[in-house]
Specification:
Blueprint: E1 2-7, H1 17-26, E2 29-36, H2 39-51, E3 55-59, H3 71-82, E4 87-96, H4 104-120, E5 125-130, H5 133-143, E6 147-149, H6 156-164, E7 168-171, H7 182-187, E8 194-196, H8 218-229, H9 233-247
Parallel strand pairs: 1-2, 2-3, 3-4, 4-5, 5-6, 6-7, 7-8
Helix pairs in contact: 4-5, 8-9
This protein binds nickel (II) ion.
Amino acid sequence: MYIDTHCHLSKNDYENIETVIENAKENNVSYLIISGCDKENIKESIEIANKHDNIYLALGYHPSEVKTTTDLDLLELKEIIKNNNKVVAVGEIGLDYHWDKDNKEEQKTLFKKQLDLAKELNLPVVIHSRDAFQDTFDILKESKNFGVIHCFSGNLDNAKMYLSIGFYLGIGGVLTFKNTNLKETVKEIPLDRILLETDSPYLAPTPHRGEQNEPKYIPLIAEELATCKGVEISEIEEVTTENAHKIFTLRSANKID
Ligand code: NI
């Protein structure tokens, strides 16, 4: 049984979300943690999670939302999270200097406020960091939150630094791409610090690269990771699922074993 620890579900992306959820189950991806990271998708994600026992939530404002996110929005987010026991993390939050270089300070401020929120609520954080390694690392080192670096694709030095401050690394479809250094890097990352994720609808793994991604492709990422690590895929399945349980408290009427 696998858990897709990070994906997005929205009717803007999928014709039929119920089919996507069914496809995941049929492919042994039994639980999904969906991330709502803008105002509209936070609402939509909550509605989806309310309907499905096997779907959990990570909620937070993505750095791309920095211009429109107010302190009142963050207060509301706090109330939403306090009143919904399907929320297992704050995220994805972080820094993105790829698209936005002109508002680094504002991004850092929003990021830090949400790190504080996660600490207050005693929840892990799901971190988005693009072209912003050093600032992300410095802030996390100082803030002492715990959680996962989502869609990790940095070098081995970056990986070691994140591991040194207790973070897990989320590995997704990029691992299956030809010519990625990530294949070498994961060999050096202890398996007990790796989580599997698709980041659907983005970053579909090989041989579906360029197509719309779905949580059902998690086993393709697991297979590649097994090859890189030289272990059986069953070990990848078992350990990464255990890891997800260590970080996220998956509370539900139906307990997961
Ligand atoms: Ni994402």
